[in-house]
Design goal:
Number of strands: 11
Radius of gyration: 27 Å
Largest sheet: 4 strands, antiparallel
Distance between the termini: 43 Å
Strand order of the largest sheet: 6-7-9-8
Shape: globular
Number of helices: 18
Strand content: 5-15%
Order of helices and strands: HEEEEHHEHHHHHHHHEEHHHEEHHHHEE
Mean pLDDT: 83
Number of domains: 3
Structural class: alpha+beta
Helix content: 40-55%
Length: 420
């Protein structure tokens, strides 16, 4: 019987680590300094054979300096605390299992034992790099993101099938909150400007005159470093209309402008009409616009009763910050909205990329190197790995995370990614 690619890949990985039935004994579970993997139970097909239908990388890899069984006892204790709505300090994977209620669907398979824990720790991180398990950090963070379901639920409710009943049942159950039904943009999209404000002059960058003296007079509580502004958004002298910006982070959502929300809803509504083969009647669109205006008035009244973050407030905050200042976060505090003098931020970027112990200057222009690689790539390789090579795509870029304990003078590890 032919197995799925996911099942074949999973069996090969376990066989590589010696996790086969003839070598798998209970004695291994009583040994410390072990590396293990948590896998979801496979489903049974029509012939009652176990099949791995999900991606083989959807697993969790861990190590322990105690026995695997004792480690599982500790993990279950943390899971129960989460189920009791307590706030324990725990790994992110347990929060995923608690949210999805699937912990009981996973089994633990021991992969190897070592004489010292440092060896087990090294193998754990080596396997995380090779297998890229989706329940290990940082991959698990994508699984915790709440996905908007509003239009999907709307399609289901109007389907006049079993989906209508299931969608109505889900809405009544309280499973979905307003954030998962229709997500809003986060503040980082409106405020972070480091990708377009940081200098692109590279090794030719030189400090310029800044506006820190005037900024400090306007905001006395702002923190400075060597006379330059390095402060959190919470230290600004905010007007009374912007007090909702206190005690917030880059991940907080805000309401977009009326024009943007209306445009998004109109486009979605027109796709919904087309999907259900409604006639192209302008009266339907006009009725929808009238409905939107009525709902927007209710939205404004609700904002007066309970102030929330809005697009206008975000623009007002940006107007208080000098145009050349850089708004980003800091290392180990990804959601902390920080304001940097361009000289401080660019000096740290300069120190990072010009560090000869970490980076080396190219002996040619990056575009020339890319063109040379393309010319030297065999045609059969370029055809077979067209998506992987993709020479037409822009070059990756990097940005830094400012480090407080380095006194803002140097980098933490720079983040490199492909251009959006």
């Amino acid at each position: 019987m032919r197995q799925s690619p996911a099942a074949e890949q999973l069996k090969e990985r376990l066989r590589e680590k010696g996790a086969v039935p003839e070598l798998y004994t209970f004695e291994k579970f009583s040994q410390p300094c072990a590396v293990y993997v948590k896998l979801a139970f496979p489903r049974l097909n029509k012939q009652t054979y176990a099949t791995a239908t999900r991606d083989a990388s959807f697993c969790y890899i861990g190590s322990t300096n105690i026995t695997v069984a004792k480690r599982e006892y500790n993990r279950v204790a943390k899971l129960r605390q989460l189920q009791q709505l307590k706030l324990p300090k725990t790994e992110i994977a347990i929060r995923y299992w608690n949210d999805s209620q699937t912990y009981q669907h996973y089994s633990t398979i021991l992969l190897s034992q070592h004489s010292e824990y440092i060896d087990a720790w090294a193998e754990e991180h080596s396997l995380i790099q090779r297998w890229q398990p989706k329940l290990n950090y940082p991959y698990v963070t994508k699984e915790l993101v709440k996905k908007a379901q509003f239009w999907k639920l709307l399609y289901s409710i109007s389907s006049d099938t079993k989906q209508e009943f299931e969608a109505s049942k889900e809405l009544r159950s309280g499973k979905h909150d307003s954030e998962t039904e229709a997500t809003h943009p986060s503040l980082e999209r409106a405020l972070w400007n480091h990708k377009r404000k940081v200098t692109d002059m590279g090794r030719h960058w030189k400090p310029t005159e800044c506006q820190c003296t005037q900024f400090i007079k306007q905001h006395p509580r702002a923190q400075v470093h060597e006379g330059h502004v390095v402060t959190g958004l919470e230290t600004l002298q905010l007007p009374s209309t912007s007090q909702t910006f206190r005690n917030i982070g880059a991940g907080n959502a805000f309401y977009s402008s009326k024009q943007r929300i209306k445009k998004q809803h109109q486009e979605q509504f027109q796709r919904w009409l087309k999907h259900h083969q409604f006639p192209r009647d302008q009266r339907i669109l006009d009725d929808f616009d009238d409905f939107f205006e009525q709902e927007w008035k209710q939205h404004r009244l609700q904002l007066q009763r309970e102030p929330r973050l809005t697009h206008r407030l975000a623009k007002n905050i940006l107007g208080m910050i000098p145009d050349d200042y850089i708004v980003h976060n800091e290392d180990h505090a990804n959601a902390h909205l920080m304001i940097y003098c361009p000289n401080i931020y660019n000096q740290a970027a300069y120190n990072t990329w010009m560090d000869k112990q970490t980076f080396r200057m190219l002996d040619a222009d990056p575009e020339e190197i890319k063109q040379a690689m393309q010319n030297n790539t065999p045609k059969i390789v370029a055809k077979h790995y067209a998506k992987l090579l993709a020479y037409e795509k822009p070059l990756p870029y990097g940005y830094i995370l400012m480090k407080r304990k380095k006194r803002w003078a140097k980098w933490t590890f720079p983040v490199c990614r492909e251009m959006d």
